[in-house]
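Internal QA ticket QA-208
Title: Verify multi-chain structure generation after dependency bump
Assignee: T.L.

Test input:
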Amino acid sequence: MSDIPESIPKPEQLGVIDQQLPRSDWMDTPVVFKHGSYCYSAKSKFMSYLDLPNPRDWSPMDKDWKLPNDWQRIIHEGLRERLSKYRSLKVFMDICVRCGACADKCHFFIGSGDPKNMPVLRAELLRSVYRKDFTTAGKILGKIAGARELTVDVLKEWYYYFYQCTECRRCSVFCPYGIDTAEITMLARELLNLVGLNIGWTIEPCANCFRTGNHLGIQPHGFADSIEFAVDELEEITGIRVDAPINKKGAEILFITPSADYFASPHYYTLLGYLALFHEIGLDYTWSTFASEGGNFGLFTSHEMIKRLNAKMYAEAKRLGVKWILGGECGHMWRVVHQYMDTMNGPADFLQEPVSPITGTRFENARSTKMVHITEFTSDLIRNNKLKLDPSRNNHWRATFHDSCNPARALGLFEEPRYVIRNVCNNFFEMPDNTIREQTFCCGSGAGLGNDENMEMRLRGGLPRANAVRHVHEKHGVNILLCMCAIDKATLPPLMEYWVPGVEVGGIHELVANALVLTGEKERTTDVRGEPLMKEEDTKDV
Amino acid sequence: MKIFLPLIAVLALVGIALAGVELANLQVFFGIVIPYAALAVFLGGLVYRVLKWARSPVPFRITLSCGQQKTHPWIKSSTLDNPHSTAGVIGRMALEILFFRSLFRNTRLELRKGPKLSYEWEKWLWLAALAFHYAFLMILLRHLRFFTVPVPFFVNALDQLDGFFQISVPALYLSDIILVAAATYLFLRRIVIPQIKYISLPADYFPLFLILGLATSGILMRYLLRVDVEAIKELTIGLAAFRPVVPAGIGSLFYVHLFLVSVLFAYFPFSKLMHLGGIFLSPTRNLANNNRMRRHINPWNYPVKVHTYDEYEEEFRDKMQAAGLPLEREASGDLKPAGLPLEKE
Ligand code: SF4
Ligand code: SF4
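Actual output:
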């Protein structure tokens, strides 16, 4: 079964990247919506549910986008407001010198050759309008000063290109002034939101999340079933029946992970890892149905939406009376938790500074938010010898690690995941230096772009990542790409299938699940995927 | 168009100064009025722009982390690329401002058939930018010699250093050569690399031409068309002391030079050249990445509509009950579910 639709060109074709620039100036080159490279619009019922402006059913391919009559005024006012609220936006609008250092750093530019995917030009799409409306030179000199009128064509261009940025921040690593195109994209998307130009793949998850607590729209009983099912499955593999409390008041720790972990594959194997780990160390924790999602699609929509969706985490921690919160493997959830949660919805003074009940380690770096990342937690357990691990049970895996953009470039979480992997797996190989850590390449599908209608762009944008994986696949026989982000786990498999067949995708705690020796477990013959473990003899050959 | 317009503009500026002095005898205007006005615009503009930026708050701490965060004591954190303290932030900013650290990271993409990608370490832009800025600084400081009596020792020292290679009489300044070479490189880069040409605006060429014009007029004055340095110094010292006088016999070339400097100063605050001020204010680099350690306040934080647990339980009570999940309330209260329930498709 393939995730790649028939209509997508073959890798040999997609790999020929057209780097020809248009003859006309970029301001005079209107956007052409290419099939496979844009996102469908949000359905009105989801927008209405969230009280978002201008709910209606429309398609980007329509000539008439059914904009409100005074849409120019709305955007102008919106931009004015944001300039006064965000120094980042103001400074970033003014100080770019167009040196182009960021130009070939964006995976979408690399994979598509489309000049408007150069971060600097992506920002110029907004900057040109800013100049026209908010700078004297732009008002007087117009085009000579790089200013242009906000027309429907410009707005369409915004829609196409700002929903063609995964907000991965790679470009900003190289910018001499730290201009963060992701921040510009976020604010540009807010402006688009003001006139009702939203994409389906962010608004439906937001609405679901708002209503049911998770973006898949799973209702409480469905959630309970799913966890129950995982408990059964883990019992089959290990012979141990674990306890997985849900909505348990007074538990010490609330555990929140992206909802894909308990429904989608390969995320699911990571879930088995959490369950096994928490059982083995006897953690007093609880799941929550109300806060059954770590991922926050508000990050791809608006700051206000981030806050509305994120509020659940603290509210639920308070209701359940836990001491602190533990968070699972997720990318953008962690950007929100790390950079926004405490400011938006704190102070979390009803919680306590996180202390590992097993090792006594104080997580001082989470003193204020009271939320700890699972790899921080697990690496501490391993460091303190609290786990019995048999890494040889992962000998059938030759692993490499994909730094997910958000934990990498918003937290700087590099060593903990590597420490865990090295302790649970004997064969670990790094991808080339320019493609990992803060220079990591995006999966090509973050920020709400992981939808199927956008598949061609995803594959193009994912090319740099895939290229680096192919390098270690050919050189070291790598057969699994590990990551700690739910979007990665969803979108890297088709990417691998397309560019680097023969490489699976897995989570860090999946390999923990394989290696972890549970007290009283039966002899394991398969890993958590049901794949047979390598026998002693085979292991020696490797 | 994008290139010629700024070129013509700079040539026109040269023409204006020449005509003003040669034909209209506006020495006082070009020697005194314009420089003072330019300085006022520069200082006023600089303050205005920085204050304007600073008026907008930094609601969220969006530090860009380019190295390991501070967590466990047994994991080495990156104090400079992912600072968690003020000292680290100062270090990070100093590296950026003094050594252009981020540009130093620059790589160039190589795209080969296959497709195969590789990334080459690309240091020319970094080198040229660094050379350009330091040469500029050097020249600026060296010029202090025209505005001070006695000339401070460090200015003399710089002078010595800069003219270290006694190639010609007067000594050829290294900084002059470096500035012209680097600016030329930066200009050529803009017209040779198609992508960079595509993103360049007239506003990118104009300052380059202006600076090249400045450098050319300065070099011509010093090495070829010798001007009366004593007279110039009388004028500049007078300007610095706010007792301006215009001595006779200063060549027109000097007025061209001075006019271009004035234009550059006046243009500075309202252009991309303000990156000089902006780099200090960039929220991705000038904040410590201690978001989870310390609370950061958003001055305009406002309440938003959320979905409360009570509303949630109200909507799903029966299902939760059937699944044996704990409830806050056994029976329905008078809460209404928020909005229309959506059914899953
Ligand atoms: S690297 Fe920074 S300054 Fe240079 S073009 Fe990109 S955004 Fe502008
Ligand atoms: S944030 Fe990422 S996707 Fe967006 S422009 Fe920068 S590199 Fe490209």
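Spot checks passed. The longest strand of chain A covers residues 253-256.
Status: verified.
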